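Sample intake sheet
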Amino acid sequence: MAIVGYARVSTTGQSLEDQLNALNDCDIVFQEKKSGAQSEREELNCMLEYVREGDTVKITKLCRLATNTKHLLEVVELLDVKKVSLQVLNLGIDTASTTGRLMVTLIGAIATFERQTLLERQAEGIALAKSKGRKPTTRAKQAQVRELLVCGMSKAQVAQKLNISLSSVYRIISKCHL
């Protein structure tokens, strides 16, 4: 019976350190830097294949395992079939009990609802800003700044082309480590 950890961050710029520290009692930890929205996560799949009856999978938060209720329930069901329990450290939940299974399902559904509500509000805000004729923020132009600099444009040319200040270009460069 092994204790198996799974740690994930969404981007390569983020650190797994906090999660790995919380999972320090695990026999093995599968870790990856990949968006949870991507259905093909190699390390998650490897972890799900690795676990055996009687093992326990530990994660720090539900959002590290799945970003929607459907995927979460699929993973929990697969673990159940393999007779593997799931522990969610920040919530103190263990699916070895029926109450733990219920809690994972409810919290997963609530988290999905909150995420969908946030995305709806964000889309409404963007639509409202566009309808009022607001220009995209400098932050929204980060990718364009990056592309133009890579193509060889000077910082001053980038600022002029994108109609942003030179200091904004420098700020984007420093935040994006260009």
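Comment: The radius of gyration is 21 Å. The mean pLDDT is 85.
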